[in-house]
Specification:
The protein is of the alpha/beta class and 462 residues long. It folds into two domains: 2-63 and 394-458, Urease, subunit C, domain 1; 65-386, Metal-dependent hydrolases (TIM Barrel, Alpha-Beta Barrel), CATH 3.20.20. Helix content is 39%, strand content 20%. Helix 3 (105-121) packs parallel to helix 4, helix 4 (135-148) runs parallel beside helix 5 (172-191) and helix 5 packs parallel to helix 6. The relative contact order is 0.16. The protein binds guanine (GUN) and fe (iii) ion. GO terms for molecular function: guanine deaminase activity; zinc ion binding. One of its GO terms (biological process) is guanine metabolic process. Its cofactor is Zn(2+).
Length: 462
């Protein structure tokens, strides 16, 4: 496949590059094998033999988004019961919904199909998923994502403790056996495919400390190390959760995860809202990445994630929707919320409110806000790096898998803004500018998204 037009990506945190009139070629396995300006000698010689797909003026290619934290079964009740504190909400809504999918495979299939369609609609090409307890339901999730063509990392939940007696694994050993067997079954399917088509992988998923005994955590740490499997969980998320762990276990989340070898470069921890800079530095040393879920944090966490401080100490961070703790599946919203929350933090720092509230940050002279360009990085390359995707993922470089979305901001024929955008001056003479991109970032919506590819394959919404 050969494509010619404008490309946009974030090579590093805070940097947005507009590559105007580039020629990009994708090989038969879905990797970019040529990338240069259309007038470059190599591009010209390629163009002598093949006609490219033309991305018209006003449209551009952008890497697909990465969602680092989404509970697939909870998609069923997105936007429900968010008045409750976390531990009550889990018991009242999350566990019930997950249990119901574990007993109704047809319902699971239809929920997961709709979820895949919505992810595609919103430009999410890679997603780290929490599923349910039962292996079969997670195999349905894995199959549906594979059929949809989405890069998906699927976690069968490990829980040998629960506030809901009917939604728990029968013993620690049974839980460990089930985790091993799910991962093996998932990997067996992948093994039958060529390497570049292995878009779905299993993930070791201790739900969070309150649902996992120390023995289970230790066993999952060993299993992950033995098979080199990814790990995901929730850490230091909410007051009630933290209190629960301290009173039941006498140690905090991070120590428990650390002593079970669950903080590794293969790990993504959601939230981490209660980690202060010294602990964030400790986390960075383990190589663990964080899924920043600003909307869900606003409901359940009572305080924001220290995003700037985490980035400064070298924690790899990406964004998560946390469906259904967060009600929006749109990573564009997570980007906007991450900026909004960081600006509130910065405002509070300037006003000295942090001191008044007794929350002394270590770096009081540091700007805490992030901007739209940094958020766009987190949603694309930052997320890809947090997920350890193949080299160059989340950006446009030779050798990277071609995971891209086509965004239209204005109509090339009329100069009219499209989707959520309006222009009162014809944008065509200037073409695509940073100003136009910022406008799209703020008010663009799914109407602006025209096409999407993962590993070079077009993927469609249905
Ligand atoms: N902690 C443990 N389980 C969950 C969950 O389902 N959602 C959120 N937001 N936090 C959790
Ligand atoms: Fe969550």
């Amino acid at each position: 496949m050969l494509i010619k037009g404008d490309l946009v990506h974030c090579p590093s945190l805070g940097e947005v590059a507009i590559m105007r009139n580039y020629l990009l070629r994708v090989d038969s396995r879905g990797y970019v094998d040529h990338l240069a300006h259309a007038s470059h000698a190599d591009s010209l010689s390629i163009l002598m033999h093949e006609d490219p797909i033309i991305i018209p003026q006003g449209s551009f290619l952008l890497p697909t988004f990465c969602d680092l934290h989404l509970h697939a079964p909870q998609f069923m009740y997105q936007g429900t019961g968010l008045h409750l504190p976390l531990m009550e909400w889990l018991n009242e809504y999350a566990f019930k919904a997950e249990e119901s999918l574990d007993s109704k495979p047809q319902l699971a299939e239809s929920v997961y199909r709709r979820l895949a369609a919505r992810l595609i609609e919103h430009g999410t090409g890679a997603v780290l998923l929490f599923g349910t307890i039962k292996a079969e339901t997670n195999l349905i999730l894995a199959r549906v994502m594979r059929e949809a063509g989405i890069r998906a990392f699927v976690g069968k939940l490990s829980m040998d403790i629960s506030s809901r007696p009917t939604y728990v694994e029968p013993s620690t050993n049974a839980s460990l056996e089930a985790a091993r067997s799910f991962c093996d079954r998932c990997l067996d399917v992948s093994a039958s495919l060529p390497a570049h088509e292995r878009l779905v992988e299993p993930v070791i998923t201790p739900r969070f400390i309150p649902t996992c005994s120390n023995e289970l955590l230790a066993g999952l740490g060993l299993l992950s190390a033995e098979k080199d499997l990814r790990i995901q969980s929730h850490m230091a998320e909410a007051h009630d959760q933290i209190q629960h762990v301290l009173s039941e276990r006498k140690v905090d989340d991070m120590d428990l995860f650390a002593q079970s070898n669950l903080l590794t470069p293969r790990t993504v921890q959601a939230h981490c809202t209660f980690l202060a800079p010294p602990t964030l530095a400790r986390l960075a040393k383990t190589g663990t990445a964080v899924a920043h879920c600003p909307l869900s944090n606003a409901y359940f966490s009572a305080q924001p994630f220290r995003l700037r401080e985490a980035l400064d100490v070298g924690v790899r961070v990406g964004l998560g929707t946390d469906i259904a703790g967060g009600y929006s599946i749109d990573i564009m919203n997570a980007m906007r919320q991450s900026v909004a929350v960081s600006r509130m933090r910065e405002g509070a720092r300037i006003s000295g409110h942090y001191q008044a509230a007794g929350d002394h940050t270590e770096q009081e002279d540091k700007v805490l806000s992030v901007n739209w360009k940094e958020a766009l990085y987190l949603a694309t390359k930052g997320g890809a790096e947090a997920l350890n995707l193949a080299m160059g993922s989340g950006s446009f470089v030779v050798g990277a898998p071609f995971d891209a979305q086509c965004i239209q901001v204005f109509d090339a024929a009329t100069g009219e803004g499209t989707g959520g955008l309006d222009f009162f001056q014809d944008p065509r003479p200037d073409g695509l500018t940073l100003e136009t991109l910022e406008k799209w970032w703020c008010i663009g919506d799914l109407r602006n998204r025209k096409e999407m590819w993962v590993q070079g394959r077009t993927i469609s919404r249905h």
